[in-house]
């Protein structure tokens, strides 16, 4: 059954009009009243972003899609941004939504769709500069942590771990991409604004800390200082070898204990290493342009080359059905895990993070595998399909909209994009927001009603297609 037939069978028509699913048919009488907080209760407002919302709503002919965009696109600004100035320097703390902590990865993704408008709104630009300052401060405080509090004296519940976290740290889970997203934010800010004011000596200290940490986790000179073990005895969070993880052959790739909050099975997590190839190039350029630091730039370039060699040797495998594809995790000895995660980066969104073009053969083969029964996280129901996550135990099977958005952003196929747009439109359970996950064919059973990252990602997707494929939305 092709996608168009699948949509019709499910009760979805192209154009996003639901005709038969009983849960979603009930939504047709919704008046689409804005779900944004009252103006006085919004944490941060941007004139540029408000203008975008007005302009986009005029162009979106489907009232439900326009309503979702109006609610979702500004959700990060409305509800998660805490901006302040200290000694004349901006600092921006951005919580993830219903968890009062700032993930380095999430906060960058949350503001990413606002970046193109920085030169149109000085207030917005200063807020993003404050986020650079906040993330830089966090990296220096603990480069192995993934999420932080605004107050570095606040003690986390996880301080009782066998290897306790520092005050100010919510989780100390070593995820490579936490550091990579800080680089990504800085690089994009400069490309758009040409403003170097955030790139002071403190910034350079943080960037050198990032390089040092990534080098440590190549583990050429030993396992490094980080290890992880949760003392409540849950095997899901247990790492062999005294908290360092499974043995590996050192091939230049960076080791991790976690990816997207969950523990790695094999320590060489491929999507993060592919993202490192991209961001180390950007960091080398910034070291040269901002600090005239040739030594640090060359260190980035050498590490980038070592990672690429390791990936080409150990992370691209021959699948008996799909040919050459990217593995999900490897150990350098020939061991591999074939799976997928729904967040960014993952194997689906490698073109989105700038690693390769959509038509790169290994990526295309990988994508076909991802959307097949050979991927243990691929879920297909009667009228919904998508990719799930290891983050929640199964059953029940849960589709993650982050993966559906990534799927839409990494194809040129109008039918596939339309399928994703329709599914996102019709699985909000009438709330006006996108959720972290929902049970296949039963979107009323969802997790996290307030998850700002996926709302921002949805807004980013709508803006992209309105610009590049307006016929799918207008």
From TrEMBL:
One of the record's GO molecular function terms: hydrolase activity
Domain of life: Bacteria
Pfam family, one: Glyco_hydro_125
Any single biological process term in GO: carbohydrate metabolic process
Gene3D superfamilies: 1.50.10.10
Transmembrane portions of the chain: none
Keywords, comma-separated and alphabetical: Hydrolase
Protein name per the record: Glycoside hydrolase family 125 protein
Lineage of the species this protein comes from: Bacteria, Pseudomonadati, Bacteroidota, Flavobacteriia, Flavobacteriales
């Amino acid at each position: 059954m092709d996608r168009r037939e699948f949509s019709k069978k499910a009760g979805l028509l192209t154009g996003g009009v639901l005709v038969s699913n009983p849960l979603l048919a009930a939504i047709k009488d919704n008046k689409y009243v804005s779900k944004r907080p009252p103006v006085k209760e919004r944490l941060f407002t941007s004139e540029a972003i408000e203008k975008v919302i007005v302009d986009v709503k005029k162009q979106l002919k489907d009232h439900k899609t326009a309503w979702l965009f109006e609610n979702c696109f500004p959700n990060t600004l409305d509800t998660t941004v805490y901006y302040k100035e200290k000694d004349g320097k901006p600092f921006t703390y951005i919580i993830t939504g219903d968890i009062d902590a700032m993930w380095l990865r999430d906060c960058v993704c949350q503001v990413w769709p606002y970046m193109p408008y920085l030169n149109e709104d000085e207030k917005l630009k200063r807020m993003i500069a404050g986020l650079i300052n906040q993330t830089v401060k966090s990296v220096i405080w603990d480069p192995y942590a993934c999420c932080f509090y605004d107050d570095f004296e606040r003690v986390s519940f996880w301080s009782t771990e066998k290897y306790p976290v520092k005050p100010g740290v919510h989780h100390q889970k070593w995820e490579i991409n936490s550091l990579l997203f800080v680089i990504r934010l800085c690089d994009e800010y400069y490309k758009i604004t040409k403003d170097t004011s955030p790139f002071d000596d403190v910034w350079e200290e943080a960037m050198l800390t990032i390089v040092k940490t990534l080098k440590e986790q190549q583990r050429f000179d030993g396992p490094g200082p980080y290890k992880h073990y949760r003392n409540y005895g849950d095997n899901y969070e247990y790492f062999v070898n005294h908290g360092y993880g499974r043995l590996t052959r050192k091939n230049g790739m960076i080791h991790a204990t976690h990816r997207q909050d969950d523990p790695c099975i094999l320590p060489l997590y491929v999507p993060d290493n592919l993202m490192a190839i991209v961001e180390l190039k950007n960091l080398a350029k910034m070291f040269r342009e901002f600090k005239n630091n040739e030594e640090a730039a060359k260190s980035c370039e050498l590490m980038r080359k070592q990672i690429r060699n390791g990936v080409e040797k150990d992370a691209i495998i021959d699948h008996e059905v799909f040919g050459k594809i990217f593995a999900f995790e490897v150990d350098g000895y020939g061991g591999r895990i074939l799976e997928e995660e729904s967040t960014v980066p993952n194997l689906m969104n490698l073109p989105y993070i700038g690693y390769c073009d959509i038509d790169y053969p290994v990526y295309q083969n990988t994508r076909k595998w991802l959307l097949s029964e050979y991927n243990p996280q691929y879920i297909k129901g009667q009228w919904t399909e998508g990719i799930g996550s290891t983050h929640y135990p199964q059953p029940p099977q849960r589709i993650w909209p982050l993966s559906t958005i990534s799927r839409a952003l990494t194809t040129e196929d109008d039918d596939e994009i339309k399928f994703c747009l329709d599914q996102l439109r019709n699985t909000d359970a009438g709330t006006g927001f996108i959720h972290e996950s929902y049970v296949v064919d039963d979107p009323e059973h969802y997790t996290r009603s307030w998850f700002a990252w996926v709302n921002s990602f949805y807004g980013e997707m709508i803006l992209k297609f309105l610009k590049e494929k307006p016929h799918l939305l207008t």
